[in-house]
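tmp note - Helix-turn-helix domain-containing protein
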Amino acid sequence: MTDRLDVASLAPGDRADAIRAFSWSINGRIEVDLPPDPNRLKAHATTRAVGSVKVSEIGWNVARLRRAAAAPVDEDMTPQVLVHLQEAGVSRFQQGGRQSVTRAGDLAVIENAKPYEAAFHGTMHSVLVRVPTRVLGLRPSLLDQVTAVRIGSERPVVGAAAALFARLARDQAAFDEAETALFAQPCVDLIRAVVSMTLGRDDLARAPLNNTLLQRVQEYVRLHLAEPDLTAARIAAEHQISVRQLYLTLSRAGITLGDWIRTQRLEECKRELASSAYQLMTIEAIAHRWGFASAPHFSRVFKAAYGVSPRGVRSQTRGGESGLSPATGSPRRGTSADSF
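out:
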């Protein structure tokens, strides 16, 4: 289920109440500071449930959110851990005597039932992941040490978590409800791993890291899909595992690394060939930008996968057709090639 907010469709006089209602649905009745001119209020948000986890994409020009020390917690409010992924703008968080500033790519953790303050400079874009504190299952003494701390994306596990959260927030059409629910536990495990590693507790992070290895590998591949040196050795080294362990993890999920990477690259090539936005780019340039070194090899692999040549897809697009027919809309199983 997906909930949406867009105050641009509301009368200026109704926008402040809509923004407060959205904020209160996450945090209970906190203070919400807004620009004084209702005509300048901007806010859009999309929220989807991922099992017990809620993922929201938010863009707004709210000035500040604040839960005062004396503010009562609503009886029906669920204590939650909020993981804030900054995508644009600058935010400042305060909780537990700590203060941090986050910029694009940074994470910050907040407990919504305890006093805190979040201030935003200008228009802010973020992804907010909410998990009930009881579901996360981390000791309060651990959470108390990590809230309002800037968590940078230098560590691979942080980058993988950020990539997964952002994709879940945006790819609304990519997963049906049943598929989406499968990501609930990986989200929880990644948050546990991020918190544990931020505290330097690699011992506590080991189990959730092992549990999320497949998801982290897949997100890493998607982020680096266009790079020609995306090899098994590089992927394994990035995740501090052996190549053998990498192949074993993938095989348990029914994935052959080379075939899977090739399929992802072909899908990106097909998308660009069928898009009018890339009509001025040559087929060879599109193939090269997605990791195919040889144009003839790319054409053979593409036709084997879809039953039509790259030039045929482009001709269909120029002719006003939608692209590949349903029978050729996805790669055929069992195709192989010499390289990724």
